[in-house]
Amino acid sequence: MEDAIEGKDYSFPKEEEKILQHWDEIDAFQEQLRRTQSKPEYIFYDGPPFATGLPHYGHLLAGTLKDIVTRYASSTGHHVSRRFGWDCHGLPVEYEIDKAFDIKSREDVLKMGIGTYNEECRKIVMRYSKEWEKTVKRLGRWIDFENDYKTLDPTFMESVWWVFKNLWDKDLVYQGFKVMAYSTGCGTPLSNFEAGLNYKDVQDPSIMASFPLDDDPDGTSLIAWTTTPWTLPSNVALCVNPAFDYIKVRDPQTNKCYIVAESRLSEIPGAVPKKAKKKDSKDSKPAGFEILQKMKGSELVGKGYAPLFPYFQSMKAEGAFRVVSDGYVTSDSGTGVVHQAPAFGEDDYRVCLAHGIIKKGGTVPCPVDDAGKFTPEVTDFAGIYVKEADKDIIKAIKGSERLVQHSTLQHSYPFCWRSDTPLIYKAVPSWFVRVESIKERLLACNAETYWVPNYVKEKRFHNWLENARDWAISRSRFWGTPLPIWASEDGEEFRVVGSKEELERLSGKKVDDLHRHFIDDLTIPSEKGKGVLKRVDEVFDCWFESGSMPYAQLHYPFENKELFEANFPADFIAEGLDQTRGWFYTLMVLSTALFDKPAFKSVVVNGLVLASDGRKMSKRLKNYPDPVLLIDQYGADALRLYLINSPVVRAETLRFKEDGVFGVVKDVFLPWYNAYRFLVQNVLRWEMESGKSFDPTKVDLSKATNVLDRWIGAAARSLTNFVRQEMDAYRLYTVVPYLVKFVENLTNIYVRFNRKRLKGKGGDEDCQYALASLFHVMLTVCKVMSPFTPFFTEKMYMNLIKCLPDMPPSVHFCDYPEPAPEMAGDEKLQESVDRMQRVIELARYIREQKKKPIKMPIKSLTVVHPDDGFLADITGELKEYVIDEINTVGLEVCSDPKKYATLKAEPDWKLLGQRLGKKMGPVAKAIKEMSPEAIAQLEQSGKIELGGQEVMAEEVKVLREFKPPEGVDTTNIEANGDSDVLVVMDLSLDTELLEQGLAREIVNRFQKLRKKAGLTVTDVVELYYEIPGAENGTPVDPMLLNVLQSRGQYFKEAMGVPLLAIDQKFSQASVELARESQVVGGDESKATFIAIITTPSIQVNMKAIKEACGGDDSVVEGVLAYLASRDRLKLKEEVDASGGSISVRLDGIDHNLTSGKHIVFEANGSFV
């Protein structure tokens, strides 16, 4: 293995870029596809974005979700084709061209020429495709951009035609009207997107008009309110809310009777009396309307009324001009009665259609032309622009004595972004798919699908399908897939074309492109003698195209017929919550209509990513960090993990915070990297010391005896089983927290507690078991985490497999770890280690609170818990780790909680409330009154009968309040506990404890100095100390001196080499690597020493050397010069090879030196 640099020097973004280069070199994605070619297909559909804008965090989130699931599917035995798709038609493209060419109206496009306009659109559809590809690739997502699909491809468009013709043949298509935002300035309907671009605060008239009921003996009128008087000439119905209370009232001033919602009576002028202004005017009672009758809205349904204007009075015989009901009528404004003009309101159209006022596919009273002027049928206002006609219409209503109130309202109103004229809502001709007729099949198909989270399926999507209305699929635009409908001039003969070949055959012309400017001029001979059929004007809504994507991306049924039919529906899709009314819906409608199947088996729904302030991310507001710059700073893996480990994966909103991404790097990746680096360093150290290559396969981990080796193996098995179980269920939101917790335990428990073993302090065999255990877990985690963090796992994997022969060159070519059966004791072992960790954390908290640093030993720790098995583990296999981590001299246990604590029970209100609801009161009371014996019974059996209900242990919080044992001096006794375990610490100090703490602090200072000097675990050095001023007779701290001189064995075990006084350093020792003054000890007993680190040297016995040189000082000087010139390690190899001696030749005379007598090679070597 190669060495790993220090964490502070490791750049995750730069290393990710190296991995990207590596993937390019080995053609990683395509190689993965090749390796899995023979495996079962896993079908994934990628919803197409527009390439006219740059990717944002919503795209990155969805892309990450898709990448994780498809990587996992590939590693679990599937062939997963992943093709990127592009939405190329529709408004976003036309919008850009309209801005570029200052196009204001439909006529402007026709003047420019549809062909010229469409080709300009074609030029920009892939404007940002390279930026998309770069960002998606940098995110680590593997998807095919070279073999992508585009909705503008003739093959894609031809399949869309095939889809439509199948719907037509099934009688699922008809022509009707759709109410849309309409620009009278441009003479064209607008999309919802366009309608929201230009709102202004304006003043509009607000009026109430009366509508006398037919044959009412009191001449009672309904009162309706509107801010669009120009729609009143088209009124054909009045709508009430069937559940509201309505009242019939009489105006005493006019003797007229009215009906309004009871809650809105105060809005009628004079209806509710006003309080008298003068206190003494007791005789003058304020006037008000007399209440005659109260009724529900449902009782008004069906009543006829007199039209306000006569223009459509003929419709009365067909059922118009009557009261209908719908829940959309609210009580927060108006009168509770809404006038209905079906051509000028989406709800109006829906309600009138539902009540038979108008007919599906029939005509709609719409007396307004494309310029927004009244047509001749509205004789009194013909030719007048609707907004300008308001005043004349109000005047006419007042003249007929049906005006109840007239005022002015200021509100926000939409204007056309092109012409800057007020928008109106207007019924425009449209082609529809009959969704309502297949609603039951839609619901049945939805029941066959699996959603995460499930409530989106059961609530949001189900409700949307339940209330589904026929789908308007056409748009009166230019850049899109044309509707393949050819019609006669009188609109009585239609011919729908389902393929390019069919159009060529019928028209007699060659067809290469299916866009409007290539086929609009093509005609088809009439079969009924009506001359020629011409194509209708509309193009498909781009949602129809994206809903056709499962078929169109494969050019089905013209190509890939067997491939499609063998693998439909798709296994998986994923998009945002907004797609329940978008792509998810259109996919479901078309697949149900065509095949009576859902288009997908499983779907993961993500929520919305908001700015940190909770508002929508906005380029204008600059309230979010640039995704590209953020990835360059923190890395794609960190962004991926941050997004996935958040509420957004549960279809909730996420307030995006850059600090959160940094937190992932700091709290997850750096500790993970440091654990990996620690493994690498100690493998290299072991290889250097043993002279062998590390082969983890030669260690049989099933025979491991160390408790933490067995624990981490059990934890790895649990990890694999859990992740597989949850990933198979697409529950990513449960997987990532578990993975993160595992990495935390790996670094904070296994690596931290086993540092000495991994450094070889427990002997070679024990060291190999520790290294092999950590290696196995690291490799397993790489494989398990590879779908989530593809870069970092690849980086580690590429280095780890240098110890293993015949491994795939990428972790992403590896099979996902198989579910591993639990071994005997796995669960108990993990529970014990978990409790041990809590014991340690509770003890650390006491230290922090009492300002007792970990370097200072404590006298004793007592663990209190009723489980004898756990206590046996604490005093057995786990004992050394507890003692070492807490730094305690004594460790005791107690299985009788009553000896150290008062037990108290509290209900878990959330859990009990969810289960028992209103029955919780008596149970909660009984829990609070539980005796210590009852609590013990609950903890032992896991359940208990209380308040007439069976209560489970997890529904009760057991509080352990510390109670010192009788006769114990509590001065230095502290305790801490949770609902499970209690720890008691004796913090009293004596000289021995102080010296132990000082020794540990000295070790800590040398370790920090090593790190500061840039030394690694494999660097061999010598350690020395110097007491400043000692040579001048300055007083030396006696405790410091005693510790330095008497604890040599501890220092050697802790640091690997002895710690010697500076005067024990031979003059021939090599260069100092580091020297630094250190202050140790508590606030009241500070002591100073100088820590010195040198390179190792050859040590000489001067007396023996002088004897070997015959007492000749000049010869001694020559021998010492020779020894100083030699490399220590090479000289040692020569001495070992020659049986422990070496000959130094000076002036023709050999002087024999023996290892151990004349020279040694380490500072801790001894002379014979």
* C-alpha-based Rg, rounded: 42 Å
Work out the helicity level: 25-40%
Profile the largest sheet: 6 strands, mixed
Query: How widely separated are the two ends?
Result: 40 Å
Mean pLDDT: 89
Fraction in beta strands: 15-25%
Shape, principal axes of CA atoms = elongated
Strand order of the largest sheet: 10-8-9-6-5-13
Number of helices: 40
Query: What structural class is derived from the secondary structure elements?
Result: alpha+beta
Number of strands: 42
Low-confidence stretches: none
Which tags fit this structure?
alpha+beta, 42 strands, six-stranded mixed beta sheet, 1168 residues, four-stranded antiparallel beta sheet, 40 helices
What does this structure look like?
With 1168 residues, this protein is of the alpha+beta class. It contains 40 helices and 42 strands. A six-stranded mixed sheet has the order 10-8-9-6-5-13, with helices on one face. Strands 4-3-14-16 form a four-stranded antiparallel sheet. It has a four-stranded antiparallel sheet with strand order 19-18-21-20. The mean pLDDT is 89. Helix 1 crosses helix 27 (790-800). Strand 30 and strand 31 (949-952) form a beta hairpin. The protein is elongated and about 135 Å long.
Compact description:
By secondary structure, this protein is an alpha+beta fold.
